[in-house]
Inverse folding.
């Protein structure tokens, strides 16, 4: 019974910035990986950035140098700072928590998705 709650999406002009947040709730012992994925209409869901419990990060080439992912393990929260946004960043952004361990399970979870729209 783990839930992910996202915030921070919205409409921004090209060159602007947004900060996404995602907090996991429940009787969680550990979350192996937290990250962000995005999906535009007609496209497959793609990885944007992920960070492990140890702090190792991985970014899609298209966002390197512009986006920064971070997490607060004590709060089970992951953040995505998005700078220099481009219209091609427009998509629904989904929070993901992988390897979520409780006393009775180990599973992956998805947030509900938050719309990010970048206008030109």
């Amino acid at each position: 019974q783990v839930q992910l709650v996202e915030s921070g999406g919205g409409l921004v002009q090209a060159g602007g910035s947004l900060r996404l947040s995602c907090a996991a709730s429940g009787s969680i012992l550990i979350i192996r990986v937290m990250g962000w994925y995005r999906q535009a209409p007609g496209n497959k869901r793609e990885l944007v950035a992920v960070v492990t419990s140890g702090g190792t990060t991985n970014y899609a080439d298209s966002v390197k140098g512009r986006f920064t992912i971070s997490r607060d393990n004590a709060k089970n929260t992951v953040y995505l700072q998005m700078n220099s946004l481009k219209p091609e960043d427009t998509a629904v952004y989904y929070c993901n928590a992988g390897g979520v361990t409780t006393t009775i399970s180990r599973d992956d979870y998805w947030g509900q998705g938050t719309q990010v729209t970048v206008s030109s």
User: Anything to note?
Assistant: The chain is about 0% helix and 60% strand. The radius of gyration is 14 Å.
